[in-house]
Amino acid sequence: MILQALKEYYDRKEDLPRQGFEEKEIPYIVVLDKNGNVVNLESTYEGTGKEKRAKLFLLPKSVKRASGVAANLLWDNPEYALGIKIKSDKERISKMHGAFIEKINSLGDIDDKGLNALKLFLKNTDKEELLNKSNVEIFKELKEDKKAYITFKLAGEDDIISKTPNIMRTVGDLANSDEGEKSVCLITGERDTIVPIHNNIKGFNATGANIVSFQINSGYDSYGKEQGHNAPCGERGMFAYTTALNSLLAKDSAQRMLAGDATMVFWASKPDKLESNFASLFSIAPKDNPDVGINAVRALFKSVESGTGVPASDDKKFYVLGLSPNKARISVRFFIKDTVAGMSTNIARYFEDLKVDRPAFENEFLPLFKLLLSTAAFGKSENIAPHLAGDFMMSVLRGLPYPNTLLQALIIRIKAEQKINYPRAALIKAYLNRNEKEGIKVSLDIENANQGYVLGRLFAALEKLQEEAHGSTNSTIIRYYGSASSTPVTVFANLMRLHQHHLSKLGKEKPGREIYFGKLIGEIHSRLDNKTGYPAHLPLAEQGMFAIGYYQQRQDFFKTKEEKANKGE
Fold first, then answer.
1. Which of 84, 358, 486, 542 is found 20 to 30 A from 209 (Cα to Cα)?
2. d(Cα 466, Cα 473) in Å, to the nearest integer?
3. Which of 78, 100, 98 is nearest to 88 (CA)?
């Protein structure tokens, strides 16, 4: 299913490389004249620091190599392409450069000026000296560059030698060779030459990894079949899915995002706005366009509510693939298939879940990363619970209950830090409404009789009373939050006795506030179950209700009368 969906994406994307080619960053270009003389050595790097990138070129696809010698066609590193010593010994470099020349000669007699010039250049025995003379500064940079790859260009031409029509046609023909064992391809369903080893998927480690692979001579080969013949994929299908996935995983891809330790890529069976907007819905907005995420969410709500942008039938599918590196292989964390309409509805529901009163300085829609950081110790990404991000995203996109580890992590952090901020409150509300069907409202709900919610409100009112009675102090009742939210009976009786002292002190300076807090605390306290008294223990979900009651009561204290009137409170 995954490979077929990627192959469909490849088929509809006309700008992706055709079979036998791939796009790759090439930092250096050797410019030759028609006689094979070096005209210049160019660098294609742009930007500085972490933004420094080499230009992308369409090239014959790379070969797989580990310790053996195998050259790429018309491009490679300096040892292969130029025979220049970087780190290998002289004997090995000779073999590497010889393999590079042999690979070019394997193209046969092609009528191409650029290729003829390259063949003449490769006959030179003093290539290092010729390149050094052409551009001393760039040649020095090339020799020190660990990511150095080189290709060639004919002076006066707009593109590199490998992009000339005759060479591209020949490379394409070679890629569609009929040699090798044939069988029915599991991706296309057609007979094709079966590939034993699939192309690398880039972006996970330095050398690339595989999403489909088999251990060589593992002893577990089915019916004596080796490598890729255990799950036969044809050349065309394999090239299509690997090219599509590499395109989605590219550094500058707009269809890729991180969710904790998982990398997500997403695409539709047909062109759709959700492809380009998906990342904006969950990612941190760039500084030059801070409203891109907010605008994307609002547009999503509008499309779901009005039905605009949603296909009339369910034939437009949307896919989300979650991947994680696992040594030389890639682990599939999750694969979600839905219609564009279904996916849009699930995402809109997720943002609806998160709606809760917030401070004026907070954004209306929070990026996924900021939400996940609220569950981590010290607010550090490395402390986010393993698999939480991936499990959470699966719940969001499938419209399923949120993982139990989400509420556990939030309660632990709140008790440890004695702080309930907007992201934590939003996540707790989302969890309780979806998993526990609590029906928590966006703003303070004075009619909510849930005992955890009422106790949270009471604790917030007692804390606010103390603040107004005694001003700023380092010793507020917030230090009792952990006990109050988990074992209320151990602290609330004492807090209620102390609040009389705070009321008395406040009444001497602000009699009106004394009356207000007296009535408020009395009204909240009256909603507790008089028969059972303060609960001896609150289960985890009730502790979440305590947190929401506390948070919403605190937020209500800072609302103006006008704000409350506008919301009908």
1. 84
2. 9
3. 78
Residues 548, 102: Cα–Cα separation, whole Å: 71
Rounded to the nearest angstrom, the gap between the alpha carbon of residue 72 and the centroid of all alpha carbons in its chain is 31
Q: Which two tokens stand for residue 226?
A: 């080796």
pLDDT at 311 over 50: no
Task: Round to whole Å and give the CA distance between 259 and 8.
Answer: 25
| Cα dist from 45 to 48, 205, 401, whole Å | 9, 21, 47
Indicate the residue type of 558. F
297 contacts 304 by C-beta, under 8 angstroms: no
CA distances from 69 to 78, 88, 93, 105, 216 (A): 14, 12, 10, 17, 19
If DSSP states are collapsed to H, E and C, what string results for 175-198? HCCCCCCEEECCCCCCEEEECCCC
Residue listed under structure tokens 């010593």: 85
Give the other-Cβ count within 10 Å of 373's Cβ.
Answer: 16
Residue 232 is encoded by which pair of tokens?
A: 């036969």
Dig out the tokens for 533 from the structure.
């008294």
Other residues' Cβ atoms within 10 Å of the Cβ of residue 364: 12
Residue 184 CB neighbour total at 10 angstroms? 12
Q: Do the bridges between strand 28-32 and strand 150-154 make them parallel or antiparallel, or are there none, so unpaired?
A: parallel
Residue type (1 letter), 444? L
Task: Record the tokens describing residue 429, joined without a space.
Answer: 């509300």
Whether 93 and 79 have beta carbons less than 8 Å apart is answered as yes
The pLDDT assigned to 565 comes to 54
State the pairing for strand pair 56-60/21-25: antiparallel
pTM of the model: 0.81
Q: What is the pLDDT of residues 431-473, one digit of tens each?
A: 999 999 999 999 999 999 999 999 999 999 999 999 999 887 7
Locate all alpha helices (DSSP H) within 52-187, ordered by sequence. 78-82, 90-105, 113-122, 127-134, 136-144, 165-175
CA 199 to each of CA 4, 137, 284: distance values in angstroms, whole numbers, following the listed order: 16, 35, 32
Cα–Cα–Cα angle for 8, 54, 34, nearest 5°?
100
Q: From residue 353, how far is each of 40, 426, 539 by CA, in Å?
A: 60, 8, 22
Name which of 275, 417, 244, 265 is nearest 333 in CA terms.
265
